[in-house]
Amino acid sequence: MAEASKKSGKRSGGKGSTEKQRHNYHSILYLDENLCDCVQILAVLTDAAFPFKRHSEFFPRGTLDEIWLPLPGRNGWPVLTKDKALRYTPLEKTKIVEHLLKIFAFSSGNLNGADMADLLKTNLRRMDRFARKQTPPFVASISKNGLSFRKL
User: Fold this and answer.
1) 50 contacts 29 by C-beta, under 8 angstroms
2) What's the rounded mean pLDDT across residues 49-63?
3) Which of 10, 21, 83, 139 stands 20 to 30 A from 30 (CA)?
4) In degrees to the nearest 10, what's the CA dihedral of 48, 72, 135, 152?
5) CA atoms within 13 A on the CB side of 21
6) C-alpha atoms less than 13 angstroms from C-alpha of 148 in its C-beta half-sphere
7) Distance between CA 103 and CA 77 in Å, rounded?
8) E strands, the chain, where?
9) Which residue has the higher pLDDT, 54 or 83?
10) Total structural domains within the chain
11) Is 1 contained in some domain?
């Protein structure tokens, strides 16, 4: 009588793998002036291998919104900001519509870097999917409850 072969106790590289799972992100996130130097935000994006561009790569500090807003619009880059006024100020709102921008804004301007990084980490895949599927212009709010958006 032949002895039954024993299964290896080693896990395969399938779903049960303990290695960090990398996602293929399709968006390139543009970090506005208020977030482009936030260490916690940069760490989340780098750790997730989420491609991003920093405001400081293109513009000096203090550049008016109406000057830099066309850049992410031309390139189709979703913008990450903590500037809630961006969606309410008439001039900026006009630029968002004019340049077909995709804006993701943290719902509260009182969040610290760690809080924003936690919200970003939780919503990153959802934001990428949303930015690809939703026709611009739009402003989406990032909160503890997830994403909520308003079409402009």
Assistant:
1) yes
2) 96
3) 21
4) 120
5) 8
6) 5
7) 9
8) 29-31, 52-54, 79-81, 102-106, 138-143, 146-151
9) 54
10) 1
11) no
Range of the domain at 50: 29-151
Helix axes 39-47, 113-133, angle to 10 degrees: 50
pLDDT value of position 147: 85
Q: Is residue 144 assigned to a domain?
A: yes
Q: Is residue 38 part of a domain?
A: yes
Closest CA relative to residue 85, chosen from 66, 105, 71: 105
Q: Which range has the top average pLDDT, 15-19, 81-85, 125-129?
A: 125-129
According to the model, what pLDDT value does residue 86 have?
74
* % of the chain exceeding 70 in pLDDT: 83
Report the amino acid identity of residue 107: S
- Residue 12 lies inside a defined structural domain of this protein: no
- Token pair for 12: 């395969």
